[in-house]
Amino acid sequence: MAVLEYDHENKRLIQVCLETFGKSGVRRTVPGQYLAADPAGRCFMMASTEKNKLVYMLSRRPDGTVRPSSPHEANSWATINFAMCALDCGTDNPIFAALEVDYTELEADSTGTAYENREKILSYYTVDLGLNHVVRTWSEPVDYTANKLFAVPGGSRGPSGVIVCAKGRLYYVHDKFSSLSVQIPRRAGPLEDASRDRIIVAGILVKTPRGGGFFMLLQTDDGDLFKLTVELDEEVAEPVSLKIKYFDTVPLASYLISLRRGFLYVAAENGPTKLYNVTSLADDDDDEPDNIHESTNVSSDYTQQIQPAYFRHRGIKHLSDTDAAIPALHSLIRTKVDNILGEDSPQIIGLQGRGNESLLKLIKHGNSVHEFGAQPMGERILDNVWSLPESRENPETKLIVVSSRHGQRTEFLAVDGNNFNSLDATPFNKERATVLAANMGHSTKIQVHAKGILSVFPDGRTTDWNPPPHCTIACAAANDLQLIVGLSTGELCYFFMEDTGLLALEDRPEMSSGITALGVADTPHGRDQARFGVVGCDDNSIRVVSILKDNPLEVHSIQAVTAVPVSIVVTDMIDPASGTTVTVCHLGLASGLYLRAIIDDVTGELSQTRSRFLGTQPVHIFSAMVQGQQCVILCTSKTWIGYHHPVSGQYTVAPLDTVGLHAVAPFISENAHVGLCGVVGTELRFIEPAKLGQRFVTEEYKLRYTPRNLARHPTEGVVYVIETDGNTMSKATEASTALAQKESAPPYHDNAPLGNPRAVGHWASCIQVIDLVSPEGKGITNTYELDENESALCCAVVPFESKSSQLYFMVGTGRNMPTPGRPSSAPQGGFVRTYRILDGGKELKFLHKTEFETPIYALMPFQGKLALAVGKMISIYDLGRQHILRRSLGYSVPNFIVSLDAMGNRIVCGDVSQSVTYVVFNEDFNRFVPFCDDTIARWTTTMSMIDYDTTAGGDKFGNLWIVRCPADVSRESDEPGTNGHISNEESYLGGTPNRLECRAHFYTRDIPMSVQRTSLVPGGAEVLFWSGIQGSMGILSPFVARRDVTFFTQLELLMRQHDPSISGRDHLAYRSYYVPVRCVIDGDLIERFLELSYDKKQRIAAECERDVPDIEKKIQEMRTRVAF
Length: 1124
Description:
Helix content: under 10%
Number of helices: 11
Radius of gyration: 35 Å
Organism: Peltaster fructicola
Distance between the termini: 36 Å
Domain RSE1/DDB1/CPSF1 C-terminal: 765-1090
InterPro entries: Beta-prop_RSE1/DDB1/CPSF1_1st, Beta-prop_RSE1/DDB1/CPSF1_2nd, RSE1/DDB1/CFT1, RSE1/DDB1/CPSF1_C, WD40/YVTN_repeat-like_dom_sf
Mean pLDDT: 90
Structural class: mainly beta
CATH topology of the domain at 369-694: Methylamine Dehydrogenase, Chain H
Low-confidence stretches: 743-752
Shape: globular
Domain RSE1/DDB1/CPSF1 second beta-propeller: 383-687
CATH superfamily of the domain at 369-694: YVTN repeat-like/Quinoprotein amine dehydrogenase
Main location: nucleus
Strand content: over 45%
């Protein structure tokens, strides 16, 4: 048990105290499942799912800290707790209310009579502050369907007590007053199930600032918000009635929070968290009187039936969306990593959500941009751009210079508001490609081209400087007052801007090889000279030189690189470790590699070098201010941005979601709008990066039902999504409903807050074809509804060898499956539906469906045929004219198969509760031979073969695991003939003859739904990518050197000691929740090293016998070489 305090200055939680109350782990009898605190802050109660409750008294010390007392037990033998809350009792002794069921008689009764007569009890537990103990003071039977409790304000605001939420009804219950009851209204509509009761899933108490009033906002499982008010008799302060009114409809929430400034925070169960502005409190009873219901004629006896109440649904009225949503990916049903767009790095295709709020998301790593204009520049290919302000005092862009080396031409555009005018008469040289254009001095503009340097002064005067004969200018770099130029002979020239113009120094030192790139540092604030410049040479080296007038172009340090430098930018940036400004050299290589190093302000030495591969083309770097922060733009096959993350402060490199620009320059409009201008092809484009810190860019496609799985066309940018919803009316049922034919129904499938029409015991399912690539036909191209009560469960694109490898889309379905909360009485079964893929994958033609005795949970292509799981059997089928035709059959798992994967002749079968089984298919004898299974019972949710012997998977308890077949067993299974003696061996302990070896095991805190071996970044190594139902995405990266394993193992151990969890949970026990963690190092814990204070970093580094920068480099490179 931890008491935490929020630190406003550092925006973090601080541990005030930590107490241990149980040492047997997280179990149903250990308190912690429920937590409620007294509104006055005097004590709090913790309860377990079963039996036990603890109360801690809180005392405040003179220094303001809060300390809990020893725990006081309030245990109830043989009881199950369903809900708990703290009553508002004013200054009286604190009271806690709990919903409980006593099962003492149920265990002793073998006839089942006690079970049929069981009761749910509302109990009050009073904390006597004087006697320092807890006692159960009152209990009352309540509706057995009760699921939630909400406290009613007491003291001067109200009568105290609780609101008990049950199925279809709300009750006000208190030991001092009579009970009240009111219906939870149901939706009125032509397609609504009039007999379906709603339940409350979330709620919040709102206290009005004026008049001391209050009301509650309660949300049903449809997402509808209701305003509940308690009407009081003012003379005796006794509640006389309950009034409930339809308020609005918002996404289904896990929690609701009311903020003081009139906002409603909705933590959605699916999708992004929403923030709404409360524009009205719905106080006018004359508004929508049909949507108001009172408890006047409703009995408070829960055993009596009541007349249901209805309301008319409408659009949002009393709330307004602030568009301040927090992006989220839960519920993430399935993911697939695939380079469907043909870019440098792959994309993540994700299925998210529930019902008609479901989405298919195409997730790309990067930062979104806003494109606000494009300017055609003729037929010449452009390769560079510069933007020049009017003067140093006025940063507004007045002149844009674009250059083309291919056509040896430079264009000059005058900026006038939103208009761009090409300058025909200009003192600049338009007949040559520009090497550099810049503002120097107060407002002098210079143009560097291959044959000279042209200076244009504010009064119109111009001066020229020409290089020596038989050489040209190869590159140049400048700041406000200093300019260095690299000649084609390998010589460096230094210039300094004075009032009379550029002053050239006579000394021209010659580099040992050709100069390919130059960079100079910005002029420091309050000084007129920068100290260092950087020279890149074609001998794969860079040199840090002095650019002071006293000792110009003196070499201070030399650094070798792996390729020819093509671009150098030197900027001043904030060092997150020390909080000081450092000089950083950004270097782009011809090989597509980006290097970043810090230049020592005194010696000029380069240190803390970081590298990252960005693309297949040379990296060109440009400096720009973005959202008030000094950033660098990196142009290669994609456009990247380098910046310091606004939250963590760490230097981050992320791609921009735009076309690959050739060059970029800052652009400031007349209304101080800061953006970027860049050239690509023959166009000049204007963009603005979105909020820095964004990690992903998504494209969303709205789905009809809850998605279950997806498959991709192997050659086209088309995916097929199967969707299924239980207790939902299908299109066929909706069309055949007599009421739907007589009345005009609301657009259920297009109105997300309203949801799909419900129908208890029914299934709705469809297949949707989505084109993710074609510019003209992007989106959902076709939707195919399945038959009534048929639910799609799995799918695959199969090339049948008997049909010349023509592609077919196969779907496994279930028939009459039990729906949530209602078992099916009809006989269950399944089908395999066959579709021919036409029109480049955008159309499906239904051929036939084959019936089976059980639902089909897994199928896949296998050696030109279809591998199919039917219960515990695995079969191979070929395509026939009217059915699929079985070619082989075999038993493989104890229960039933839920997932399949294959390599060669080997198939791995995932059992619903017994992990995985390795099966070999003997083609000569047409026989399946199970030969190896697991020793641990795992409730498999996903699995994938990493290699021929190794499988990775996840289970519903949140574990990721990797198992491997022993080498000798693997060799024996591949022996020709009847697979050696493996096929004749007896089973061992009810399983196969051999057992798999567990190579890795890790608790993820989420339920893995997808596992895939893939590469995530260009040039990166392959990793094991996984995603979970709560929206988590992660990777397992293999180590390639034993010294790295030793180092990170030691660092993980030190991080456990120096950075413990504020909640007191032991890290090793946490990651070993199901079985002990094995052969996995927690990267999330390791990366917390970057957020520690410098003192803690120093202590850890000393124990590791390394420097802090070395450890930070190791951590950052471990991520950037394989992921983002």
